[in-house]
Amino acid sequence: MRLRGLSLLVSLALLAPLSAHAIEFSAAELAKAKALQQRLLTLDSHLDTPANFHREGFDLRQRHDHNALSQVDLPRMQEGALDGGFFAIYTDQGDRSPAAHLHDRDAGLQRLLEIREMLAAHPDQFALALTATDAAKIKAAGKRVVYISMENASPLVADPSLLSFYHQAGLRLLSTVHFANNEFADSATDPKGAEWKGLSPAGKALVDEAVKLGIVIDQSHASDAVFDDLIQRLPVPFVLSHSSAKAIYNHPRNLDDTRLKQLAKAGGVIQVNAYGGYLIDTGKSDARKQAEDALMKQIGAGYDQLTIAQGVQLKEGLAKLDQTQPLRQATLDDFFAHLEHILSVVGPEHVGIGLDWDGGGGLSDLQDVSQLPKITAWLLRKGYSEQQIAGIWGGNLLRVMQQAQDYAEGRRTTNGRALPR
Ligand SMILES: [Zn+2]
């Protein structure tokens, strides 16, 4: 997720034409891939879709591909055979003043409420998943799977004890930090550099408490030193919910091969991302940034406040900008370069998919979740077995969740007391 500025919108706009060599799949390959996904569980570990729930005019059951704000809705989930995934409570990092921490506390609770309200409003289409085995049961009942995750733990700074409340309300995956350092951890991308040299004392206490509750820890967006702390500290495997390979594009958000191997050795999983700016150098000019700022001013609302109608305006405005000031757009070929490399380093048991939908993810030839069978078709072409593909589309991630939950359960049994559920 990247809500600062307009950079996320670029990949959501109408995109530049494909190069002559872009990968293509036949209708037969895509049909076979979709049928396979329909048999398997198909989950994405990082959906920023809850950012849309409060928007005027947004209904997750309706198709929203006419605006620049949405890549995930029920019709397109059905089309792309996406069963669901982890719906993120994302909070933009504030200035870390006491007032900002209270604001973040409330913003996190508000988003949690919006996810629960969506579930309550559409019980025939969506269901909350709490355990690793819930997803398959929900799919069998003909519904979409909603796990709850948190991206950036800043809502917990004011009162870390809220974590147990979030857990009771369904939180099962937790990242410590986002674009900038916070009280818990160093970010991979804070221009000021390291502040804690990894996890802070409060961050260590937070991840320990999360592990006790059976919540999976998510390393995406945190610095490499945080990764090293997690490898040292955690008694259970952890994941990166949306990250890619440093060996393919040297960006601080991506993971190097040594750490990829450490992650796999610890039993963890990396869910490969499709955020263009982490896959390639998009070469965005200052002039383009200014033009995007001017466009937002003209529309007259901040990104978070945009209505669906304004999202349509935005899509059209960005398409115009693409004609005069085009950006280099990441393609499926770029995404597959990362995926193939990671698969070669850690093997298919430690890889998954987390494409950053509704948070800046998407490629010129993979614009929304309706096109997911292209990824499965590629995996089939590369010779991966049905079982391996099932792992990549969610089985590996759920294995980590099962281990986290088993560990927490074991502790409860050992302690002879039950934590509230
Ligand atoms: Zn993110």
From TrEMBL:
A Pfam family recorded for this sequence: Peptidase_M19
Keywords associated with the record: Signal
Membrane-spanning parts: none
PROSITE patterns in the cross-refs: RENAL_DIPEPTIDASE_2
Signal sequence region: 1-22
Taxonomic superkingdom: Bacteria
SUPFAM superfamilies, per the entry: Metallo-dependent hydrolases
Tagged with keyword Signal: yes
CDD domains: rDP_like
PANTHER family: DIPEPTIDASE (PTHR10443:SF12), MICROSOMAL DIPEPTIDASE (PTHR10443)
Protein name listed in UniProt: Dipeptidase
